[in-house]
Amino acid sequence: MILISHKKFTFSILILKFVAFWASKFILDFLPFYFFKF
Fold this sequence. Notes:
Strand content: under 5%
Mean pLDDT: 83
Helix content: over 70%
């Protein structure tokens, strides 16, 4: 039971890291366009 929750926990952390990586990539790619519009 503890092992399953631990696996879920590490899996959710992995997903969070993946999402954070793509979010930062997306922001870094589109931030210059956002600033050049104004």
